[in-house]
Amino acid sequence: MSIYPNPVTDILYVNSQQAILSFDIYNIAGSLMKKADYSGNNAINVQSLPSGIYVLILKSAEGQLSFKFSKK
To answer: What global pTM score does this model have?
Structure first.
């Protein structure tokens, strides 16, 4: 599983062989910034987030994975 581009401007893409069920995005201070069910189109719109460092948590039936990314 991977995400790209990093840093991101508007759309963060997810490359995964597993079925993603939902995702959470936290800022570096640990505040939840965005939470949603995964639409399955491999794109997460992060345009509304302010510039900074974030943690994306992808949840699947097999468990969850976290990725750090920066927003321009």
So the answer is: 0.92
